Inverse folding.
């Protein structure tokens, strides 16, 4: 652990002393900071960091500090809503709402079959919710259509881990980040998406000079500015870069041949796939100089310890899973896995997306079981006491496939839990059109852009109003105790799911209720039994133990165990055919392999090196749309701002959308700072102010995705493409084509009008007016000249995080 | 029964070849993926169709593997074709009219695959078929 000392960050607004502090975990990003909820008179009035939690030692990020404001927002939903015949959402009782849902579910099953009900949940819920979804979905509804917004953020994590290691579970942990000599942050803007972990790294760097940081990002982000080496590649070239670096490492002989021969298969094919990627070719395709590539290759090739992290810059890009597999390949050929300070650390974006995968709410069966292996199906049938024949065989369908199914009339009920797809899905107009044509249930604490398409809305509890566990990015299971009761009329996701199961009368093969637990802790105890003997074995975890030890990293096998800092310390991987979580996929097309094909590989406990073939993004700039568009997060907001938009502090820090434009591009187009511009793509358009600078490279623009109100035109996902990665089916938000247009009015110069006078008339500065019209000499305007006047100039300050803390 | 199966897969092969021929003139990342998938499907079909002449050979495990590959590649190429359709519309590609001609082929292929799945269910049984063919192709009844 790096932290030398604790620092208890807190944010409290209370009239009088706090009554109690309740043990909890931050519910924002995937770092998983320990905290306490402040309670006064039955309300949550603040938060403070947990000084004893090893992940953060008391520190919190800006969003974490402010998440509790949402709990007390005056517009909390407190009653279910049903859309009436006039198209309005009107209050209803819980019985009325649940009966409508049950009736619709039964109708859909009868008319369209078992694959007609989709449950689309979230990465911000609890493991207990996800496990219940898995049980209801697979053993109750018998559907394959279990997915979550994790498809949009970290599905690629799961698939790259399955490809290389045979099971989910990121090999390295934050402990390895503390020890590594070289850290590569690949498409991972940690300074803005995981501020506490970034601070942890930078504090160590300040003390020791380590780690050497390589940052791969097409933007000059806050993270990139702290890098020892920033590889600012062209959009959509992640695999080209990784192939070049891998080839360089191979060429230089910086590999552990003993490790490769003993613990891996597939080396020859992998090597062959990168052979053409000379430094020259790589430089040409990625835009990174050969010198920098050589330096990066040397650093990665000679590091005595290495951790690579990935996040949306990798997962939401073209060739997402292949890029992450390339990183796994790199670690394997260098033998940099399973040892202190070594391993790939494929991150998650949300606080509990990993739990959704582990518990089986998305992806494979619970506890990393293979949905195409009859042995695993039989196991699940025995554990759940259901007939094997009733359990669906085969993988899930991701949300983009579900959109197509809805378009084809195949889905009769779409149950949306704790997520806002009308802002977060790519090409959102297409998604809206689809959801308008099916029955939609939305489970959320507030009215959102997605409740606009809902037929039923169920009000649910927020952080602090329910108990359960979450799994962060490095396999740590954290506990959240209930601090206060939810507002009257509001239920938890868990309660709603149990109610649904009861109303649907789901039963096991002995005609007993399918779900027998009634509390989250009882549910967790059942999940523990399910996990026994699987990679995520949690048999040694209890709620009490989680609170006592401030989180435990699975596997936790047996009462005495305090968890596992890193996986594969024994270099045994989960690739035995009867144990593996997946028979893997073709690395290029994503075609699932059959059991026989996987068995023929004879991996038998060895890791799998895959060939990594580069394929350019499916959409690229052309004459009509000459710019690259990428989207992403700001430090001040979480996803679609359902929670963070209700914090006054966070709202003021970043109030509206914008488009980040390179200074040269802006000059060429004569766009001025703050000017309202139209950004169009083949899918739609938005109008947002320009933020001009050097964060983006020439030819690339960036739009934050947080702002998606139907009342404005600033949603990034009006523009984005909805192609997906072939293996993970994660959408490629990061590469779309777009164009910029000025929105101007005209002013014809009258007699005696100076530039100063004209600027004043429109509330502009002379400099802005000059720049907007590319005027070098302000005295050369003449009567009759037509000047372009920017329609609006909006200040887009967006303060950097840590204004009051010294730069590390 | 294997004769009927052979007919289904022969029809699938015809459509596969039409698709490959139809996309041959064009370059696009989505087509690169689709081509790879359809090529693999074609190879599997060419291996298994002759074997379906003979009941004994049809029971060979390699036939089962190739059958799975045929279905799995349809599952890959179908959304790719739809995606290519969107790409054509968005970027006004010169292949737009070609897409419109090719668009019905994969849905038509699905019909033959569903017929094949129905026959396979009789051959392998209701449980075993699930591990050979994706449930999206297995009719709910009949």
């Amino acid at each position: 652990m790096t932290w030398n000392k604790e620092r208890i960050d807190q944010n409290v607004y209370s009239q009088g002393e706090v009554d109690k502090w309740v043990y909890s975990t931050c519910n924002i990003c995937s770092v998983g900071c320990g905290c306490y909820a402040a309670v006064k008179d039955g309300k949550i009035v603040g938060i403070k960091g947990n000084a004893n939690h090893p992940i953060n030692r008391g520190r919190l990020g800006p969003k974490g500090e402010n998440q509790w404001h949402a709990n007390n927002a005056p517009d909390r939903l407190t009653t279910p809503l049903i859309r009436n015949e006039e198209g309005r959402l009107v209050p209803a009782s819980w019985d009325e709402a649940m009966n409508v849902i049950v009736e619709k579910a039964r109708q859909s099953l009868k008319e369209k079959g078992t694959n007609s009900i989709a449950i689309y949940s979230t990465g911000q819920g609890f493991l207990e919710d996800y496990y219940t979804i898995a049980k209801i979905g697979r053993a109750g509804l018998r559907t394959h259509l279990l997915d979550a917004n994790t498809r949009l953020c970290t599905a690629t994590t799961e698939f790259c881990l399955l490809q290389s290691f045979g099971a989910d579970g990121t090999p390295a942990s934050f402990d390895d980040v503390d020890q590594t000599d070289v850290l590569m942050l690949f498409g991972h803007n940690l300074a803005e998406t995981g501020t506490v972990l970034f601070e942890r790294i930078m504090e160590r760097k300040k003390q020791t000079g380590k780690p050497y940081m390589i940052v791969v990002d097409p933007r000059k982000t806050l993270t990139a500015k702290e890098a020892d080496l920033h590889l600012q590649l062209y959009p959509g070239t992640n695999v080209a870069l990784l192939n070049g670096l891998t080839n360089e490492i191979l060429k230089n002989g910086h590999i552990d041949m003993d490790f490769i021969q003993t613990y891996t298969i597939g080396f020859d094919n992998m090597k062959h796939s990168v052979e053409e990627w000379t430094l020259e070719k790589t430089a040409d395709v990625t835009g990174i100089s050969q010198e920098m590539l050589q330096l990066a290759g040397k650093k990665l090739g000679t590091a005595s310890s290495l951790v690579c992290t990935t996040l949306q810059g990798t997962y939401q890009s073209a060739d997402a899973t292949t890029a992450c597999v390339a990183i796994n390949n790199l670690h394997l050929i260098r033998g940099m896995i399973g040892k202190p300070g070594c391993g790939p650390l494929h991150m998650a974006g949300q606080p509990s997306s990993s739990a959704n995968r582990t518990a089986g709410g998305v992806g494979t069966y619970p506890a990393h079981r293979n949905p195409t292996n009859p042995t695993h199906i039989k196991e699940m049938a025995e554990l759940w006491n259901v007939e094997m024949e009733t359990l669906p065989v085969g993988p899930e369908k991701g949300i983009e496939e579900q959109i197509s199914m809805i378009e084809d009339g195949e889905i009769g009920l779409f149950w949306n839990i704790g997520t806002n797809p009308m802002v977060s899905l790519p090409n959102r107009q297409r998604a809206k059109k689809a959801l308008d044509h099916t029955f939609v249930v939305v489970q959320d604490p507030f009215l959102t852009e997605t409740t606009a398409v809902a037929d039923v809305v169920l009000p649910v509890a927020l952080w602090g109003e329910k108990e359960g566990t979450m799994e962060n990015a490095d396999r740590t299971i954290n506990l959240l105790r209930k601090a206060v009761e939810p507002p009257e009329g509001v239920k938890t996701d868990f309660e709603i799911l149990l109610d649904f199961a009861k109303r649907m009368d789901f039963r096991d093969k002995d005609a007993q209720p399918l779900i027998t637990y009634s509390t989250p802790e009882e549910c967790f105890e059942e999940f523990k039994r399910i996990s026994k003997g699987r990679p995520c074995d949690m048999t040694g975890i209890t709620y009490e133990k989680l609170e006592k030890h401030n989180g435990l990293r699975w596997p936790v096998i047996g009462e005495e165990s305090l968890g596992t800092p890193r996986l594969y310390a024994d270099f045994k991987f989960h690739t035995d055919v009867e144990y593996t979580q997946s028979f893997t996929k073709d690395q290029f097309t994503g075609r699932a392999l059959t059991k026989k094909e996987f068995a023929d590989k004879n991996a038998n406990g060895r890791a799998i090196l895959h060939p990594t073939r580069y394929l350019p993004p499916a959409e690229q700039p052309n004459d009509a749309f000459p710019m690259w568009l990428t989207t992403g997060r700001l430090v001040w907001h979480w996803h679609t701002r359902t929670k963070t938009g209700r914090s006054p502090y966070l709202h003021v820090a970043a109030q509206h959308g914008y488009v980040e434009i390179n200074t040269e591009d802006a000059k060429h187009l004569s766009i001025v700072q703050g000017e309202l511009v139209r950004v169009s793509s083949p899918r739609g358009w938005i109008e947002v102010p320009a933020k001009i600078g050097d964060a983006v490279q020439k030819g690339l623009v960036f739009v934050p995705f947080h702002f998606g109100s139907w009342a404005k035109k600033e949603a990034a996902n009006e523009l984005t493409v909805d192609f997906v990665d072939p293996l993970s089916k994660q959408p490629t938000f990061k590469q779309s084509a777009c164009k910029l247009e000025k929105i101007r009015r005209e002013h014809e110069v009258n007699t005696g009008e100076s530039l100063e006078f004209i600027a004043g008339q429109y509330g502009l500065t002379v400099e802005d007016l000059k720049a907007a019209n590319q005027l070098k000499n302000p005295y050369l305007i003449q009567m009759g000249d037509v000047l372009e006047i920017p329609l609006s100039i909006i200040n887009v300050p967006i303060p950097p995080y840590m204004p009051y803390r010294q730069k590390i | 029964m294997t004769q009927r199966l052979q007919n289904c897969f022969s029809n699938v092969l015809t459509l596969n070849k039409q698709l490959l021929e139809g996309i041959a003139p064009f370059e696009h990342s989505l087509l690169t993926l689709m081509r790879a998938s359809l090529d693999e499907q074609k190879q599997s079909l060419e291996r298994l169709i002759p074997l379906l002449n003979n009941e004994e050979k049809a029971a060979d495990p390699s036939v089962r593997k190739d059958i799975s590959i045929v279905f799995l590649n349809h599952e890959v190429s179908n959304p790719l074709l739809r995606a290519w359709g969107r790409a054509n519309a968005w970027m006004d590609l010169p292949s737009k009219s070609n897409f419109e001609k090719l668009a019905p082929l994969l849905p038509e292929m699905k019909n033959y695959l569903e017929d094949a799945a129905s026959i396979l269910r009789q051959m392998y049984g209701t449980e075993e078929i699930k591990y050979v063919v994706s449930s999206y192709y297995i009719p709910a009844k009949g």
DSSP finds 29 helices and 29 strands in chain A. Chain A touches chain B at residues 113, 115, 144, 318, 372, 374, 388-389, 392-394, 400-401, 404, 586, 588-592, 594-597, 615-619, 622, 624-625, 682-683, 721-724, 726, 737 (CB under 8 Å).
